[in-house]
Amino acid sequence: MADSDICNAALKKIGQMTTISSLASAEKNALVCNQFYASVIAEILVSYPWNCAIAREELAAPDPEPDNNTLFQYQYDLPSDSLRILDINNDRTIEFMIEGSFLYTNVESCIVRYIKQETDDTLWHPLLKEAIVNKLASEIAVILTGKQSLSSAMFQKYMLAINHAKLINAIEEIDTSEDTTQWDNI
Question: What is the spatial distance between Cα 105 and Cα 101, in angstroms, rounded to a whole number?
Answer without folding.
Answer: 14
